[in-house]
Specification:
The protein has six helices and no strands. It is mainly α and 184 residues long. The chain has one domain. Helix 3 packs antiparallel against helix 6. The longest helix is centred in the last third of the chain and has 27 residues. The relative contact order is 0.19. The chain binds protoporphyrin IX containing FE (HEM). Protoporphyrin IX containing FE binds next to helix 2, helix 3, helix 4, helix 5 and helix 6.
């Protein structure tokens, strides 16, 4: 376990330093949800080279993000000394950045073209997980530079973001690949 995490644990001063990350993260999730409900879905779809339509494109980009998120978790375990091998911290940083970036065009299409829908339990769960994912990701990024947050903050926020992404993948890409087929 590298020194960074031991120092952080020693200097934690309770939950107060978490207030801003939690409030801003909560607001991000809320604003995405309200926008997803309030605006009229446009049905807008972009054609992306190599994909036959927006749906398979979204299913594969989300799968890419899901795989990178697994790299994130494994590299995080290494950073916390739980893996027994040392993976360079850069792997965690860059797999996280790429995993997040891959979700942006997908979520843009979801929110702008489709909106927050709740007619089917799968789609309701998916829509809420989408808003929660960006909220908890925001909270993690705001807590990251803070030296005085509790030692459990990053593993818990990171774990929640990963769980939300797994849920997003199961309620969309996995559904697409099993209900429609594995196609591009
Ligand atoms: C931010 C809030 C989000 C909302 C409100 C939302 C909403 C939706 C809705 C209503 C659909 C259509 C579902 C259907 O009829 O089958 C959909 C599809 C999809 N969404 Fe999202 N989504 C969000 C975020 C995300 C994110 C972050 C990802 C990926 C990381 C994602 C991946 C997908 C994929 C792959 C599909 C196509 C497969 C499908 O139709 O289920 N969504 N989304």
């Amino acid at each position: 376990m590298n020194t960074l995490h031991r120092q952080r644990r020693r200097r934690s001063s309770g939950l107060l330093p978490l207030l801003t990350p939690l409030v801003v993260g909560g607001l991000v999730a809320l604003v995405l949800g309200v926008y997803g409900r309030a605006h009229t879905p446009t049905g807008f779809a972009v054609g992306v080279a190599g994909f036959s339509a927006a749906l398979p494109m979204k299913a594969w980009l989300t799968t890419g993000s899901f795989v990178l998120a697994i790299v994130q978790v494994v590299s995080a375990m290494s950073m916390w000394g739980r893996l027994g091998i040392d993976i360079p911290p850069g792997v965690h940083r860059w797999s996280g950045r790429l995993a997040f970036l891959l979700t942006i065009p997908v979520a843009f299409h979801c929110l702008y073209a489709l909106g927050l829908q709740y007619d089917v339990p799968r789609v309701l769960a998916h829509s809420l997980l989408g808003c929660f994912f960006y909220g908890v990701f925001t909270a993690k990024m705001l807590a990251l530079p803070k030296q005085d947050v509790p030692g459990w903050t990053l593993p818990v926020f990171g774990g929640l973001a990963f769980t939300a992404l797994v849920g997003l993948w199961l309620t969309s890409s996995f559904w697409f690949f099993t209900a429609i087929g594995v196609k591009v």
